[in-house]
């Protein structure tokens, strides 16, 4: 690993002879070694194109490090150094009274959101973010750090400051959109910390159920169009919270709190004629939805119904000769779609990959704390 901070930024990019970024070419089989090289490169040095995502540095780190773990290449990671680096993003209250000042004392997304105290020693706008906290805890579990040794009380008590009267969550105390993405982050945080005091579970459950649409999928908010990402956040949250069982289709689905047959039908309709999965009706297939929708089907017990050969064929058209995956076929790879391309192949039980914990979006080994 380079001597700079993990996931520092580079100033170079591959270009063709005309100065344009080189296009990727599809390969006929899963190129594990190229993907290891791709994630290893991003672990050592991030291309400068990611500078605009500096505020999401912990998210980029999660995709990179968890990607290497999926590929059984975690030996490329300096685990102790990564753990220390992640812990440096914690937002700490000065005292117990601050836990009720409305701020969230989780993890910052990057150095850009960490501010020094003012002249009176008061931390202004120096709180954490739900998504960054989920990613931080997921990274720590991936590198084998015992997250139960950290001060979880300040995370969980202050997280309740973000829950709204309708059961949804804001990601940060300053105010932002409230939707299923942050409900999922809150549920995953409580699950990983093995403590549900950070939320009112009944209110959260009711909010999730209000997001199920007439067609069976879930919108990101009540009344919105069904969406693959929203549906994953809803189903995974309910599973983590213990409100639905694993493999519902093998049990009495009619007694479930969600409409399972309609949800299964909606998910199955998302596999398009090209074999890939779309996030919404009448949209193009996109690599990441092979995870977002595929993981829902895995949780429900319906993954066996998809056309796995066709899905694999689609994903291979999105695989780059440089390693990684693109959003659409034969485009340049990016970190986000590369990670979810690998998770999709893990769901397909591709040799050379660690199995996936569908509910947490990381390897089973990391979820169970086995390294």
Automatic annotation (TrEMBL):
Its cofactor is Zn(2+); Mg(2+). Residues 30-357 form the Prenyltransferase alpha-alpha toroid domain. Keywords: Magnesium, Metal-binding, Prenyltransferase, Repeat, Transferase, Zinc. Its EC number is 2.5.1.59. One of its GO terms (cellular component) is CAAX-protein geranylgeranyltransferase complex. It is an enzyme of class 2 (transferase). GO terms for molecular function: CAAX-protein geranylgeranyltransferase activity; metal ion binding. SUPFAM superfamilies: Terpenoid cyclases/Protein prenyltransferases. It holds the Pfam family Prenyltrans. It comes from the Eukaryota. Residues 1-27 are annotated as: Disordered. Belongs to the protein prenyltransferase subunit beta family. This is Geranylgeranyl transferase type-1 subunit beta. It comes from Hibiscus syriacus (Rose of Sharon). The lineage of its organism: Eukaryota, Viridiplantae, Streptophyta, Embryophyta, Tracheophyta.
